[in-house]
Amino acid sequence: MLIRCQAAKVLVCLVAAAGAVPFLFTPDNVYADSNSKPIKVLIVDGFSNHDWRQTTRVIRRILDDARLFNIEVSTTPASPDAPGWDTWRPQFERYDVVIQNTNNIGKNELRWPREVEAALENFVKSGGGLYILHSANNAFSHWQEYDRMIGLGWRRQDAGTALEITDDGKIIRIPPGEGKSTSHGPRLDTVVRILNRHPINNGFPERWKTPSLEVYVYARGPAQNLTVLSYAYDKATQKYWPIEWVVQYGKGRVYNSTFGHLWSGEVEPASIRCIGFQTTLIRATEWLATVKVTWPIPSNFPTESTVSLRESKTNDSHSHLPEPAQGVAATAKSVPSIRVIDPSLFVLAEPRKSHKSKAGLPYGP
């Protein structure tokens, strides 16, 4: 649930109980979005070469703190021969957005049942939203429709088209077999450059810096019905490559990016605490569900020269939520709270305009 005010001096948000509607009290007006329904989000996890458990916890907390979403988690069985695969059937149609947080790279035998694959395809084709979270675009190279949904991913040289961005913002399509397989160099503080304005990034600076980013070079796939939102420079190749993009798949929408890296042994690294990433996560998830974005951009959003981080919340109450058993779903419920919000943290979005890509394609059905 989103609260917005026009001339706030002191904003006080009171939440009396879990699920209660927040109110903002200002000297001039009172706003409460009592008609909006929470966006239903399902995070799917259970295996990855990244720290998928911690990733789910922090992503869930970031979204939960926005109070726009009801979040649940469905965790696969732990291994291909583990019990539970015959009953693990997430009901995607019950949700507005699915966040994909599994990755079987190097373990091709670890994959979803075909029935679940088909269910996700139908969910997105029918109008659902799919968020591909960081290394989830490494996953499922055997699954052709997954490649169509994600547009680009971590793939072999011959597995699809790669997109390179020129200095003046034009896209070069690199055919299968040309160039190299997908890779990335060291994680570095990197300037993200906007290529196409979109509801997700409307109001962002043209360039902003994010910490410890992996710039994927030669990400490959069908690259159909795809719009690149932003791109960044890779020192090794001395070229620019896509960082985030959206894909139209049937009536549904897909958001894919390399943001959100969290490696085993890291604890809430800067890449996760980046205000640019967290703002993008919330706005992208809202857009996937509604084709609109109402979540405001904080005034301390990163600039081209400055990284901006939120404090670590490792020791807060959300960090101690119980782990779901593998092969079952767990619900993340909001925690009752009273909040005082500093009005300087938010800026009002400009009136929304009709957005089109440089290719002239609308964003969403």
Question: What would you note in describing this structure?
Answer:
Mean pLDDT is about 80; it is low at about 1-30, about 315-325 and about 330-365. It is globular, with a radius of gyration of 20 Å. The protein folds into 2 domains: about 1-30, no CATH class; about 35-345, 3-Layer(aba) Sandwich (Rossmann fold), CATH 3.40.50. Helix content is about 15%, strand content about 25%. A 10-stranded mixed sheet has the order 12-11-15-16-17-7-6-4-5-19, sandwiched between helices. It has helices spanning about 50-65, 115-125, 145-150, 270-275, 275-290; strands spanning about 10-15, 25, 30, 40-45, 70-75, 95-100, 130, 160-165, 170-175, 185, 190-195, 205-215, 215, 220, 225-235, 240-250, 250-255, 295-300, 330, 340, 345. The protein has about 375 residues and is α+β, with helices and mostly antiparallel strands.
Observed structural traits:
365 residues; alpha+beta; Rossmann fold; ten-stranded mixed sheet; four-stranded antiparallel sheet; disordered N terminus; disordered C terminus
